[in-house]
Write a structure and sequence with these properties.
Length: 684
């Protein structure tokens, strides 16, 4: 995800020498022309076709490792930026891909804010996904020994990260030169100052560093890494269309990853991936931040405005079997305007388009709505491009995923490294006065206090994590789990979620040691399709296990989506309650289990909630001839939100306009019920 921090001209003039940094009128005109060119032109530079080989990895024969046929839950992050991403580097990140992998395995690394960060518990897998667009260019501009640093556009970046003071002047300077860099690169390409080969040479070197770091950190059976990157595109007016591309292996890979400069159209990315697949190079793409797409991510039409057909649906599902449902910049499960009868819909809502102050239209931007649209499209023309599973990931831009509410340190380097900058504690007199005078739109006045409102960091969250069910912790097993969509997402905790459906599960013993083996044998698992069987109603098996290091479980829900007379319908069913409570058969809700949070110190009610919840369930409204999808959502007991932790530690009262607490949660990939047996991209 690329960031631009929106400072008004007034505040920049007040705290930085904007005239000195921005250039003369001719330079500004070139930037405007370049900006319009890359916004409207499909291809700025042609894609590279070169394939390069990497040395075989030693001791990575996964066939020698123990394999669990019932599969294990593994937790990871497939969306991580380091100093090789031009925005991360511009905002002070110096951590390399190698540093990122050390962090994921539990080591401490240095944050751009000058302090060390460390996970409470290591992750099982991790993928550095730096932006392919201008990969490595800011670092190259900053290093005065390089050829690229000698171009005029690089001068403002010289030695930029030798020191990061994090003050207002430093923030303004970094934002100002960053906002020009992309336009300056394109302008230099257009006027011939340098050519495509100059950019590709730098990006190729950075890509090799990325892959080599992943290979060096890979420990089959213990810790898995992937060669990966982010494709960063958008349509219209900042309508986010970003994807992360994950490669299954690393023996042979493209020399330069496909970027927005090669095509602004995601369909061009899929063509490129299909071409690589024909050469034996397997990959998948995972869209993210659909919540900021203004309806573009899950549209009814393709890039050209044509109605989506079977060919489009097949290609999209072949290349994009998953979506990132939650991350730091918001959760894309559903929206209160789309799910008015879902009391838990208002979670992690970030209402704006990415890197913008413009609102984002909810329709076509949220995952549940996309699954509903897919059913409607399949009913109309047998083409469902939205039969995807889900994961979570962080989108950190510091190499370090901030996944814990009580240990949240921001995500974009020096710009949100402190509670004051994040807007969770009142601004200092200096910051508050300067910005209130120069840019009042960047100030929130709440409870008689002045808070900074940079980039709406207040909406962000300590999220998320990708969960997979795989035979062992290897590239092959984890990638194959991603491909078959046996995946789930969490908002940052390590909850485990199982989900099966079948016609011979009604009488299984929940305490049987053979439960999971029976479910795999006789049912469909998350991410797959259950075919109709003589009008029989399926039985659903759900099993959730709490993260022992966080709050207990409160309830397990199954969410159903279907069409009725062409209209989208949905229903949230509580199916398992904690503390011996029972679901009300009329409301389909568990009673309140009484879990509370003390907002003086964030302590929680003791001995409330469950360490695991397991149940069998049948849909009371099942209709045999009706296409539908079902997915699981698991809710923990409430805990303090990161902003509340920030305030309490600073001796301040939490802001009244932000949620004081949240309920961490997990989402499974759906199981689709197919009444017709058609248009199913994975059948278990």
């Amino acid at each position: 995800m690329i960031y631009r921090v929106f400072y008004s001209t007034g505040v920049l003039a007040a705290i930085a020498l904007i005239s000195a940094c921005s250039g003369d009128q001719a330079t500004e005109q070139k930037r405007l022309e370049a900006r319009e060119y890359y916004r409207t032109t499909n291809t700025v530079i042609p894609a590279e076709n070169e394939i390069i080989s990497f040395p075989p990895l030693p001791d990575t024969d996964s066939s020698r490792l123990e394999s669990n046929p019932d599969r294990n839950a593994y937790f990871g992050d497939l969306h991580v930026h380091t100093t090789l991403s031009f925005d991360a580097s511009a905002f002070g990140t110096t951590a390399t891909p190698a540093d990122a992998y050390r962090y994921a395995q539990g080591e401490a690394i240095l944050h751009p804010g000058g302090f060390e960060v460390q996970l409470a518990q290591p992750l099982d897998f991790y993928a550095v996904t730096d932006h392919a667009i201008m990969l490595g260019l800011v670092n190259e501009a900053a290093d005065t020994s390089t050829e690229f640093s000698q171009y005029e556009l690089s001068e403002s970046y010289h030695n930029i990260n030798d020191s990061v003071d994090g003050g207002l002047f430093d923030m303004a300077k970094r934002n100002l030169i960053f906002n020009h860099f992309f336009s300056d690169v394109v302008a230099n390409l257009l006027d011939g100052t340098f050519d495509n080969a100059t950019v590709n040479k730098v990006s190729k070197s950075a890509w090799i560093e990325t892959v080599e770091a992943a290979n060096a950190a890979y420990q089959p059976g213990q810790f898995t890494t992937f060669a990966a990157y982010e494709y960063t595109s958008s349509s219209g007016d900042k309508q986010n269309l970003h994807r992360n591309v994950i490669f299954r292996g690393s023996d042979s890979l493209p020399a330069v990853p496909f970027s927005r400069l090669n095509s602004i159209n995601p369909e061009g990315l899929w063509d490129w991936m299909d071409n690589l697949r024909d050469q034996g190079i397997e990959s998948l793409a995972i869209p993210h931040n659909s919540n900021g797409s203004n309806g573009a991510m899950f549209a009814f039409t393709d890039w050209s405005g044509n109605n989506i057909d079977q060919e489009y649906a097949d290609q999209r599902m072949r290349n994009e079997p998953l979506v990132e449902i939650t991350q730091v910049k918001g959760t894309s499960d559903t929206h209160p305007l789309l799910s008015k009868n879902d009391e838990w819909a208002n979670f992690g809502i970030s209402p704006l388009r990415v890197a913008s102050t413009l609102p984002s239209e909810p329709k076509g931007s949220y995952v549940r709505n996309a699954w509903q649209r897919g059913l409607a499209m399949a009913e109309a023309n047998n083409a469902n491009p939205y039969q995807f599973g889900v994961i979570g990931s962080s989108d950190t831009h510091t190499a370090a995923a901030a996944l814990e509410e009580d240990n949240y340190f921001g995500k974009i380097g020096s710009l949100d490294a402190t509670p004051e900058k994040r807007g969770s504690v009142p601004a200092s007199f200096l910051y508050g006065t300067l910005i209130k005078l120069a840019a009042p739109e960047m100030i929130d006045e709440v409870d008689g206090e002045t808070y900074l409102n940079f980039q709406n960091y207040k909406y962000w969250g300590a999220s998320g994590i990708a969960g997979v069910w795989a035979e062992n912790n290897t590239r092959e097993a984890i990638y194959d789990a991603l491909r078959r969509k046996e995946t789930f997402a969490t908002s940052g905790t390590r909850m485990k979620v199982r989900f099966f459906a079948g016609y011979d599960l009604a009488n299984v013993q929940l305490d049987s040691h053979e439960l999971i083996g029976t479910a795999y044998k006789n049912g469909a698992t998350m991410g797959s399709t259950l075919q109709a069987s003589n009008d029989r109603a399926p039985t659903f098996l759900t099993w959730a296990v709490a993260d022992p290091n966080t709050a207990n479980l409160q309830r397990v829900q199954i969410i159903k989506g279907w069409l009725e007379n062409g209209e989208h319908q949905e229903q949230v069913f509580d199916v398992a309650c904690s503390d011996g409570l029972s679901v009300d058969p009329q409301t389909h809700r568990c009673p309140d289990n009484g879990a509370q949070v003390n907002l003086d110190d964030c302590s929680r009610t003791a001995n409330v909630g469950a360490s695991e919840l397991k149940t069998l369930w049948q849909d009371p409204d099942f209709t045999a001839g009706q296409e539908a999808f079902y997915y699981v959502r698991v809710l923990e007991n409430p805990v303090c939100r990161w902003s509340t932790w920030d305030a309490i530690r600073a001796g301040e009262k939490p802001r009244s306009d932000l949620p004081a607490t949240i309920q961490e949660r997990a989402w499974s990939s759906p199981i689709w019920y197919s009444a017709s047996g058609e248009n199913n991209y994975f059948v278990n």
